[in-house]
Design goal:
The chain contains 2 helices and 3 strands, in the order βαββα. By secondary structure, it is an alpha+beta fold. Strands 2-1-3 form a 3-stranded antiparallel sheet, with no helix packed on it. The longest helix is centred in the last third of the chain and has 27 residues. It is elongated and about 65 Å long. The structure holds zinc ion. Zinc ion binds next to helix 1.
Amino acid sequence: MKSDIRVCSAWRGRHDRPVYSLSQTCPECGAPTENSAPAPYNPDDTYGEYRRARKRRAVEESQATHDSQATEE
Ligand SMILES: [Zn+2]
């Protein structure tokens, strides 16, 4: 589903949190807004990749535990 919600392009330097708007400019600082949909891949989002990797490991560990319990029966 396509979203028309936009976010202040300068919020990181001007606001404590993302400022969302449906207009072409930020209602708080007047900076241009940009589409709030996340990019498919952000090379700067290293922490995001780290989080995803940790989540994958957690899922694998829970599955491994389940498998070992099943094998013991
Ligand atoms: Zn702003």
